[in-house]
Amino acid sequence: MAIKLKLRNKKGEFKTYYQEFVPYRKRLDYLKEEAEITDEYEKFVQQLPVDGNDKPIIPTAEYTAYELKLANFRAEFVANLFDDKAVTKDAILDGLEPSDATDEIMNIIMYDVLGYKKEDEDEEAPK
Fold it and tell me: Pfam families, per this entry (predicted)?
């Protein structure tokens, strides 16, 4: 199954890119890198003061920095899946609508790279 990514270029035209093969190593690379980013953030959070409910008080700027780091990593990761050199992190960040970007990127990661099936996710959802 090919990975498909539709991006808008600087001229406003859409182009769809396909990647036929992704090595298993990419799956392992993703899991390792995301775990490192998340672990770093969790270590930071453990050092924060807590509120009356024992929940850490996370400064908005720090949380935003974590989200930005994770989003940039994911865009770069998806770009590196494609052999076509036109698919770059910047092409992804500039070529997707904000309302669609997270879903597009995460669908590629979750279903095409990590191998989850949409039915698996639906079964876990509360009813």
Answer: Phage_TAC_19 (PF23857)
Compute the distance between CA of residue 20 and CA of residue 82 in angstroms, rounded to an integer: 9
Q: What residue spans define the domains of the chain? A: 3-124
* Residues 40, 28, 35: CA angle, nearest 5 degrees: 15
Which are the contacts of 1, defined by CB distance < 8 A and separation ≥ 6? 112
Question: pTM of this prediction?
Answer: 0.84
Q: Residue 107: helix, strand or coil by DSSP?
A: helix
Token pair, residue 87, equals 């698919």
Which helix (H) or strand (E) segment holds residue 6: the answer is strand 3-8
